C-alpha cells in the first residue's frame, strides 16, 4: 500500500494548486504497467523528500476532469506544481535518479 495520499478532481485545487510547497502529482491507472513500476519510486521519494515536497497520486480511471484539463495524454505523467502552476512535466517511467534531478530544481 502506498504512503502517498490520493487526490481527486474535487480536492485537486486545495491540495495541489493551493499547496504551500512544491507538489508532485503522479497521474496513474491500474492497467498501466509503467505506472506500477513507478509507484514504489514515488513512495521512496515521499519518504525522503516529504518535508520539502508534497507527493500525491491521481487515479485517472476515477478522476477524469483534472487530467483532461491538464492535457494528460499518456501515463504515467508526473507534474510538479509550484506557486499554483505546473513548473515541470515528465511523461513515462523514470528512474529514481531522474526524478531526484527533476525535483532538485525546487527543493
Can you characterise this structure?
By secondary structure, the chain is an alpha+beta fold. It has a single domain, classed as Glutaredoxin, CATH 3.40.30.10. The protein contains 4 helices and 4 strands; from the N terminus they run H-E-H-E-H-E-E-H. The protein is globular and about 30 Å long. It starts with 11 loop residues before the first helix and ends with a helix. The relative contact order is 0.23. The mean pLDDT is about 95.
Topology at a glance:
Layout lengths: L11 H6 L5 E6 L4 H17 L4 E6 L5 H5 L7 E6 L2 E7 L4 H9 L3
Parallel strand pairs: 1-2
Antiparallel strand pairs: 1-3, 3-4
Number of strands: 4
* Strand ordering within the main sheet: 2-1-3-4
The major sheet is characterized as:
4 strands, mixed
Strand content: 15-25%
Oligomeric state of the chains present here: single chain
Short structural description:
By secondary structure, this protein is of the alpha+beta class. It has 4 helices and 4 strands; from the N terminus they run H-E-H-E-H-E-E-H.
Task: List its traits.
4 strands, alpha+beta, four-stranded mixed beta sheet, Glutaredoxin, 107 residues
Amino acid at each position: 500500500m502506498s504512503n502517498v495520499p490520493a487526490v481527486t478532481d474535487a480536492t485537486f485545487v486545495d491540495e495541489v494548486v493551493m499547496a504551500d510547497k512544491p507538489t508532485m502529482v503522479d497521474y496513474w491507472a491500474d492497467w498501466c504497467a509503467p505506472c506500477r513500476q513507478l509507484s514504489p519510486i514515488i513512495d521512496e521519494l515521499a519518504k525522503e523528500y516529504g518535508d520539502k515536497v508534497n507527493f500525491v497520486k491521481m487515479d485517472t480511471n476515477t478522476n477524469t476532469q483534472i487530467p483532461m484539463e491538464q492535457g494528460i495524454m499518456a501515463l504515467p505523467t508526473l507534474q510538479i506544481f509550484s506557486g499554483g502552476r505546473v513548473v515541470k512535466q515528465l511523461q513515462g517511467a523514470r528512474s529514481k535518479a531522474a526524478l531526484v534531478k527533476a525535483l532538485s530544481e525546487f527543493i
